[in-house]
Amino acid sequence: MNTPRARAMLFMGRRSHQSHAPHKHSPPAVANDLVISTVDENSGIAMLTMNRPPANSLSLEMNEALCYSLKTVEANPKIQSVILSSTNPKIFSAGLDITELVAPDNDRLPRFWNSLQQVYIDLYGSRLATVAAIQGHAPAAGCFLAMSCDYRVMSEGDTNNDIKKKHVPTIGLNETQLGIAAPPWMGQLLVRTIGFRQAELALALGTLFPPEQALSIGLVDDIVPHQQVESGDHKLVDLLPSQIKDQAQNSLLQKAYTQAQIYAKIPPQARVASKMVTREEHIFRMIAKRDEDTQHFCGFVTQKAVQKNLTAYVEALKNKSAKK
Ligand SMILES: CC/C=C\C/C=C\C/C=C\C/C=C/C(=O)SCCNC(=O)CCNC(=O)[C@H](O)C(C)(C)COP(=O)(O)OP(=O)(O)OC[C@H]1O[C@@H](n2cnc3c(N)ncnc32)[C@H](O)[C@@H]1OP(=O)(O)O
After folding, report:
1. 300 ligand 1 Cβ < 6 A
2. ipTM beyond 0.90?
3. CA 137, CA 134: separation in Å to the nearest integer?
4. 54 burial via Cβ count (<10 Å: 0-12, 13-18, 19+)
5. How do strand 45-50 and strand 35-40 relate by DSSP bridges?
6. Which of 98, 158, 289 gets mutated to test ligand 1 (max ligand atoms within 8 A of its CB)?
7. Which UniProt keywords are present, listed alphabetically (predicted)?
8. Which of 50, 119, 40, 49 is nearest to 76 (CA)?
9. What CATH number has the domain bearing residue 155?
10. Is pLDDT above 60 for 5?
11. Cα of 99 to ligand 1 centre, how many Å?
12. If you measure from the C-alpha of residue 121 to the centroid of ligand 1, how many angstroms do you get, rounded to a whole number?
């Protein structure tokens, strides 16, 4: 697997293991509206907008839709950059769909975990330049999605004096707060992003960082004030479906688009080769341990004590939501 050819194929948008179809790790060809895809061949920029109400949490189907949409965009040679965003103005992604973890089905649970592993392989190893536009909360696997991109722009949120309107998004791997631990490859992504000591602290405490702190430790690359701009000065916004067009007219997407343009102007072969330098070893190490990782995950999640914590957590989430 870890040959020069396999490595090159990984980063050119083709997976070496997909030549041996059917393979248990290959995402099925699904097409649905869980991820809205907008493509602008003139600029070479596409946008994938996560659209799984209420919280863009990652179910098996959502993971498959993410991989499918990304692969479809990657197959278009005119596209060089992709922006990952959300239809929900307050939530980028709430992480794993916790209901997948509670009283899980024995057959579905490993398929669910495989689909998440595939998101990591496809997104972190994409030939495209990937920019996360983080408009709202990004806990746990939501943070993982953002960290799998090449660049992260986060909204400062609405710091309106009116407490009811106030909204400050947070980002981080908060798994320990749920009584679970991020898998090694996800935890290592945090180490790679913010450095060893900061990651060690953040992982143990399950810290969720508000935008300014996230910027100061390097978890995001840029933050932008929450504001509407008069009109989009780029073609991509014009192409967006009406359901997200309004919220696209904001400073966050403008910034993400500018960054996507910067990437799109770099000679692609050189950009992809430089990405391989920093990422291929990490990806291949994970692929080598993929089945072991799945077994570990299934064994861990189905433990009685873990199930108890997760059940209580889901209950608390539902109660909180019901009180609104
Ligand atoms: C060695 C390792 C081995 C094994 C590893 C074991 C496990 C795997 C470990 C790590 C991988 C990653 C794990 C995860 O991602 S776990 C998920 C973590 N996510 C969270 O903790 C976030 C939970 N959600 C929230 O805190 C809030 O919802 C949020 C701040 C995102 C938004 O708050 P807001 O007030 O705007 O909305 P809510 O009213 O709370 O929610 C609206 C609605 O959405 C539902 N919801 C929210 N989050 C989730 C979720 N993650 N999964 C499923 N459903 C979710 C919530 O229940 C509400 O629904 P409803 O009641 O129907 O209105």
Report:
1. yes
2. yes
3. 8
4. exposed
5. antiparallel
6. 98
7. Acetylation, Fatty acid metabolism, Isomerase, Lipid metabolism, Mitochondrion, Transit peptide
8. 40
9. 3.90.226.10
10. no
11. 9
12. 23
- Domain hosting 122: range is 4-322
Spatial CA neighbour of 56 closest among 134, 156, 126: 134
Q: Please give the DSSP secondary-structure letter assigned to residue 14.
A: -
Say what the pTM is. Answer: 0.91
Q: Is 182 in the pocket of ligand 1 (CB under 6 A)?
A: yes
Question: Can you give the pLDDT at residue 238?
Answer: 66
Cα 177 to ligand 1 centre (Å): 12
Atom of ligand 1 nearest to the CA of 174: 21
Encode pLDDT of 82-139 as tens digits.
999 998 989 999 999 999 999 999 999 999 999 999 999 999 999 999 999 999 999 9
Between residues 72 and 8, the one the model is more confident about? 72
The larger pLDDT score, comparing residue 250 to residue 234, is at 250
Structural domain total, the chain:
1
Q: Measured between alpha carbons, how far is 324 from 313 in angstroms, rounded to an integer?
A: 17
Whether 120 lines ligand 1, by a CB cut-off of 6 Å, is no
